[in-house]
Amino acid sequence: xxxxxxxxxxxxxxxxxxxxxxxxxxxxxxxxxxxxxxxxxxxxxxxxxxxxxxxxxxxxxxxxxxxxxxxxxxxxxxxxxxxxxxxxxxxxxxxxxxxxxxxxxxxxxxxxxxxxxxxxxx
Length: 122
Known about the structure:
With 122 residues, the protein is an alpha+beta fold. Helix content is 33%, strand content 25%. A hairpin with a 6-residue loop joins strand 3 and strand 4 (46-50).
């Protein structure tokens, strides 16, 4: 996945916002909370995303993947796709979509309704 494809994909997910921070990384958020980070580096794209506990255990030692620097060292379940072979693009999109969902579910119900991520009950 190229950085342009990464940005287009993240931008198409519901209620997202984008900011460039942390030395030029493209950071995607839902409800003000980070769900994906694209670190600009020469070579393979470095894409970081939140995963479930089970996915973290499965992915952390796969070739081209690693626990995300800084985040994982603090006990957070984030994976970084940093070199080939890594994940196929379709699978990488699934994990980024799931990261968006994990972060969105952690928002307050009021915030999810405000963002259109949950239907308000009358």
